[in-house]
Known about the structure:
By secondary structure, this protein is α/β, with parallel strands linked by helices. Helices cover 25% and strands 34% of the residues.
Amino acid sequence: MAILWQQTIDGNHYEVRTAGASVRLYRNGVNHSQWNPKRPLSGSIWDLIMLPTLHRPFKSLEDVLILGFGAGSVGRQISELVMPKRIVGVEMDPIHLSIADGFFQCSTGFDLIAGDAVDWVNESAEKASYDVIIDDLYSEEDGIPVRCVPMNAEWCKALARLLKPGGILVFNMIEPRKIKHLPIFKFSKLKKRFTETVMYRIDGYENRVIAFSEMPFDCKCLDRQLKFIKKKYPSCRRVEKRYVRSRNFKP
Length: 251
């Protein structure tokens, strides 16, 4: 593994490393982003975050919002495999966005915003503007990922306001026990709207990625999409065997 760039800025140590064709960003020893253009699906946690989008027909999702963009792992996957017209990424750490621009090829085709995701969502004048909203808002503390934003009803309602009818709302959860407490399962207005769910995990990791929608998650569409991806990128073959899926999850 080679180090392309490293620097300590405002008490945070950043490293950009390569491993084969893969480029990775580490901040304070935690792997925040990873991308391999030859293997866009690698059996990683980032795969799980974008997998719900493959339940929709190719190019049918036009506008994507990623909260907690990092250096662009999920953004690059969605750009390559979903091909939306617009990807907006909001990221608290401007160094991550500089690395996304310089090392992860996010200089074109992305609208990247440095700032607090909660403030940006609450102040956004856009309404029902996105087909997909991804919440991946984590920092790290003593080398361990920690949630940055409370997962409360106000936050879920704010995200729902920005989601188009039939859109997909995706949460990366590092504590599975908290999934049953998500406000979408408890508050009547949210519960009535988001009737469909799909959840993904990978053996050996605590993370659960759960997605909500008004529309069913089409597993046949997912199978077609994965078949096409594996044909285009042979190194992705058999990667789907790592994914564990639960449809219509109920706490």
